[in-house]
Request: fold
Amino acid sequence: MEKAILQPRFKYSQHFKDFWIKGNGKQLTDFSGAEVSFRDFEKFAPYFYHVDEIGDEVVKDVYLTKKFSEGSKEIEGYIRNGVSENDDVPESVKKLFSQTQHIPEWLDYNLLKSGAELCMRSNLDSLISLRDYCLIGGYDYAYLNKPLIVTEALKKGAVKRLSETLDFWINATRYNALEIHAKGYEFAIKTRLIHSYARLSIKKHYKEWDTENWGEPINSWDMMATYIGFSLVFLHSLKKLGNTFSVEEEKGLFHLWKYVGYLLGIPENLLPDDKKQATEYFYLWTSVQPSADKDSALLAHSLLNESLENPILKFEFQRKNLRYLHICCTWFLLDDDVCRRLHIPDVSNRKLFPNTKIIINKIYDNLINRNTRINRGNKAQLKVLEDYLRVTKNSNFH
Reply:
C-alpha cells in the first residue's frame, strides 16, 4: 500500500497558531532568532514513517530468540567488550556496533565536556526543567504520546517512569559518560533497543495503530522532537529560571544531545547544531501534531501526582508542598493555553516560588565560582537519582 504524503495538517489550527504567535513557540523563536517557515517541510516529513531498522533487527535476532533477561545480558556483554567484524555474532549486532563504535568526524570532546558541565552546574534547576517543562510540555502533543498510552505507561506509574528518565539523563550528562563502553554510552544503546522492542510489540499486538495519522510508532521525527526537548526546551527553561550560560556551554549542550541522538540511531540530518536550527526543525514537527487529548491530561496528572505517591519525602505535608511547587513551575514555564489543555490545576501565588528562584540564582551566580557550582550540582543530582532508585527498587512500583 502506498504511504500517504504527509502535509503540515495542523498549520491552520488554533493551537498551532497560538503556540507560535503568542505562546511557548513565540518565546522559543525570540530566544533563538529562528526564522520559521514550511520551506523544508518535505525534507523532514518522510521521517514520520521512518524507524531505526538496525535496532529493530537486533531485537529480532537477540531479544526475540531467547528470554528477555538472557537477551539483556548478551547485549550488555557486547556493550562492555565491543564487537568486531570477526566476532561470531548476528549480522544486525555487527551493524549496530559498527555504527555506535564509529566516532563521527564532527564529534568534539571539549564541547561534550562543556555540555555536561552546564547540566551539572544548573543543579536542581536542571531537574525542574526536565520535569516541569520538557516532560509535561511534551504531553501536549497527542500523537507523540500514543506509544506511551498503548504500552500502558500509566499503569507503570509516574514514579517509575520519572526514575528511568532521570537515570538515563544523569548517566548521559556526566564527564566522559559517552565514551565507548562508558555508562552513558551503555544507557544510549539500551534505550535504543527498548524503543525498538516497544515498536515491534506495538506493531504486533496493537492492531488499531493508525500509521497514516500517528506515524510509525517511535518514529525518527518524533525522536528528533524528543531530543530537542532535552536541548532547546531544556536550555530555554534554564534561562527562564534565571540561569546564565556561556556560548561554549550552549554549543556544548546541543553537541552532547546530537551525539546521544547519533548513538540512539536518529538520522544525523535530524539532529540540530544550535537553538536556531532546533527551533526551525521543531516548528515543522509541531505542524503534524494535534493538541492535547484526554490521554495527555491523564499523563500530566500522573506526573503531577507523582509527588504524592513518592515515599522519598516522609510526611504528607512535604509531599503536598512539593506538588504545589511543581505546579507553580509548570504554570511559569509553560504557556497558559498548554496548562489549560493539560488541566493543570490553578493555585494561589503561583509566581512566588519561580520568581524567588530567579533572584536566588542571580545571587548564587555572582557569589559561588563555576567549579564549585558544577561539583555541588553533580552531588545534588546524584542524590535525587539515588533516592529514586532506592524507592523504585524497594517498593512495589511497576
User: Anything to note?
Assistant: The longest helix spans residues 370-394. The two ends are 39 Å apart (CA to CA). Residues 14-51+113-158+210-394 form one domain.
